[in-house]
Structures are given as structure tokens and as C-alpha cells.
Specification:
The protein has 118 residues and is mostly helical. Helix content is 58%, strand content 5%. The chain has a single domain, classed as Multidrug-efflux Transporter Regulator, Chain: A, Domain 2 (Orthogonal Bundle), CATH 1.10.1660. Strand 1 and strand 2 form a beta hairpin.
């Protein structure tokens, strides 16, 4: 049975280029060891590894983690089922990704304007 705590509202993704595993954990409501496990299970999830094997996730990785989380925890897919679902989905184009990022920036700027107006 699904835990009601899994239905938490996730915070907005800040407009940064790279995120640490701890930041992604907080943004997606998933523990770091689960993220490391998902990297092994989902080929599309491959953060950049730098000095000391530190992981750096990009925005599209964070969105993918949220999608995986939703498939597993909300929709009730198994790891195998979620993997199949993701493999059969068309890969979003660079233009679609760019549009998503632009929309996120617009929302963030609107929030900043609201804060400045107060």
C-alpha cells in the first residue's frame, strides 16, 4: 500500500545548472541511496561525476527523478514496469526542454516581482 507521506508536494526546482545528490534528494523527496540505486536501474538517469566521484545532476535529471518517483510511488509501477514505460516514451527535444526551462524562469521571475512589490 502507498504511504500517504509519498504524496507530499514537491518544492519548485531552482534555476541552477547543477544540483548535488543532497539537493536532488530534497527536491524530489527521495533519499540519496535510492537515487544511487535508480542510477543503476534506469539508463536515462546518469548524472555527471566529477572529483571524488561526486554526482552533479542537471535540471533534466531532476525532472526524470520526479517522473520515476511518480511512476513508482504514485502510479504503483514496479522498477521493471517504470523502466519499460520510460524507454517507450519519446525523448523530449532540446527545444521542448528549453521551453520548459524558460517557463520555469518566467515563474521564478514573477515570484521575485511579487516579493519586490510587497
Amino acid at each position: 500500500m502507498l504511504d500517504p507521506a509519498d504524496n507530499i508536494e514537491l518544492p519548485p526546482i531552482p534555476s541552477k545548472r547543477y544540483f548535488t545528490i543532497g539537493e536532488v534528494s530534497d527536491l524530489c523527496g527521495v533519499k540519496p541511496h535510492v537515487l544511487r540505486y535508480w542510477e543503476q536501474e534506469f539508463n536515462k538517469l546518469s548524472p555527471i561525476k566529477r572529483r571524488g566521484n561526486r554526482r552533479y545532476y542537471q535540471r533534466h535529471d531532476v525532472l526524470l527523478v520526479r517522473q520515476i518517483r511518480s511512476l513508482l510511488y504514485v502510479e504503483g509501477f514496479t522498477i521493471s514496469g517504470a523502466r519499460n514505460r520510460l524507454e517507450n516514451e519519446p525523448v523530449p527535444s532540446n527545444e521542448a526542454r528549453r521551453n520548459d526551462e524558460i517557463q520555469a524562469l518566467i515563474h521564478e521571475l514573477e515570484d521575485i516581482i511579487k516579493l519586490l512589490d510587497v
